[in-house]
Amino acid sequence: MEKEDKDILQKIRSSRACIRDGYRMFTERFRRIFRHTWKWAIGFAVLSAVASALPVLVSPTLTLAGLLIEVVAVVVFLWLANRQLYKRGFFEATQKVGFKAWMRHLGMLLLIMIVCLVIISILILFTSLPSVIMMAANWESQMGVINGDPQGMPDYVMWLSIGAFLIAGFLRAYVWLTVLCPLYLAKVSIALQEKEREEFNQKSITKNNEEKAIVYRS
Description:
The protein is an all-alpha fold. It is built from nine helices and no strands. The chain has helices at residues 2-9, 15-28, 30-58, 63-87, 99-104, 106-127, 129-146, 156-177, 180-217. α3 (30-58) packs across α8. The longest helix has 38 residues, at 180-217. The mean pLDDT is 81.
C-alpha cells in the first residue's frame, strides 16, 4: 500500500493537479499530519494569541508589533512543521532541486502560491470570526472609556478574549499547513522533470559523440 502511494505521488503534475491533489492529500491524511504537528500548532497558537492580544488588550499602538509576531510565527511554524513531516516520513525525500531549476518553473510555483494564498485567506476569514468579534468588542469598550463612558465589559471578557485568540490561532495553524502539500507535489514534479531533462541531454550528448565518431572513422 505504501509503495502504491509512493508511486502515485512520484509523478509529473501540472500546477492545477498539484493544487487539487495537494489539498486531497491534506484532507485524506489529516490525522497523520495532526499527530506529527500538534505540538508545533499549540506553540503557534500561543504566539498568534499574543500577536492578537497586544493591540486589543494592551494598546492599539502595538498593532505593528503584533503583525510582525504573527508573520514570524507563520514562517517559523511552516518551517518546523515541514521539517517534522519529512522527518516522520510523511513527505518522501526527493531529488535535490537547484536554484536554476526553481527559476525555470517559477510561473508554476507562483500560480500555486497565489491560489493557495487565496484559499488560505478565505479559510482564515472564517476561522478568525470569533477572534474578530472579541477584538471589536474590546475596541468598542476601550473607545467608550476614552470618551468618558463607564467600562461596560466585565473582567472575565479579557480571559474569554484570550481563549478565543488561542482557539483561532490553533485553527489558523492548520489552515496555513494546507500550503505544504501542494508545494511538496510541485517540488516532486519539478525534480522529476529536471531528471528527465538531464537524461535527455545526456542521451543527446552521447548520440552526438557517436555520430562524430562515425564521421571521423569514415
